[in-house]
Fold this protein.
Amino acid sequence: MQPNITEGIIWYVVFLYSTVFHEAAHAWASYKLGDDTAYRGGQVSLDPTPHITREPVGMILMPLLSYVYYGWMMGFAHAPYDPHWALRYPKRAALMAMAGPAANCILALISGALIVLGTKGGHFVPDIEQTGHDTWALVGMVLFITFKLNTVLMFFNLLPLPPLDGSALPSFFLKGNKAEQYQHFIWQPHIVFLGLMIAYSGAGQIAWRLFYHVHALLIQLCGY
């Protein structure tokens, strides 16, 4: 199906609030774990304004351009945190990092469950290619885009590549100076750049492959 205005609007709204939920989860977790940096920036909120203000390119320009060119929305945002707090409490910082993918997981599970219920009820099909143009078809499209986007975002952000959230996973197992040395290592600009290059040039395909497996399971649960 070729991208259209209605689908584009749905994509952007889903992208916007999925990203905001992800970043607000980071901000809320860091606040609860002792760092109020993002809280003071107003990012412990589902209001997209502070998130857009901080990253207008990643929240507006990049998703719109990626949709025009690829029919899929990509972008980025960032919840700030105190690096000194992260160095002092590496396990807390790792929990904060995992809060973002956990938020995407919650949205994927909720939308997936609603897709199963809606499909079994005969209201729509478990895919973005909805038949018809009624309200239920629109609801089905919103749910599937939410499921698809958040599943891919969850798996992508769990890749163990800086600056993705998954790069914080080793901090759960490292102790003392090793945890601090690891964090200093992954924060180096050239390591961050290399991680992004690897993630977007090929490793990101891992997230897509995992999504296809989850999508296949969803199709089975829907009875297709």
